[in-house]
Write a structure and sequence with these properties.
- The protein has 89 residues and is of the alpha/beta class.
- It has one domain.
- Helix content is 28%, strand content 24%.
- It has three helices and four strands; from the N terminus they run βαβαββα.
- β2, α2 and β3 form a beta-alpha-beta unit.
Length: 89
Amino acid sequence: MTQKTIELEQFLIRGVFRQDDFLDGLDQHDFDQYTDSHVLVRGCDSAIIPPWAFMALTARLVPLARTVRFGNEHDNVVIFRNSPQQSAK
């Protein structure tokens, strides 16, 4: 199983969440690298991230990833699981 990790801290500017910078970062990020992968989205301890940011990130991953999980390597929650019928398309 190929698992790739997205750190939400990579979308922060000097440790601060800013809506426009976050959305620009999503637009510039190469999401194709997550095709057919199990993706773990790690939050960050240093900034407050609004819930809609996780939803925006998940919306970009759903068409590509096999699964999307939130948390860390040892404690995570499956947010999305691609069914076999969807992955065959």
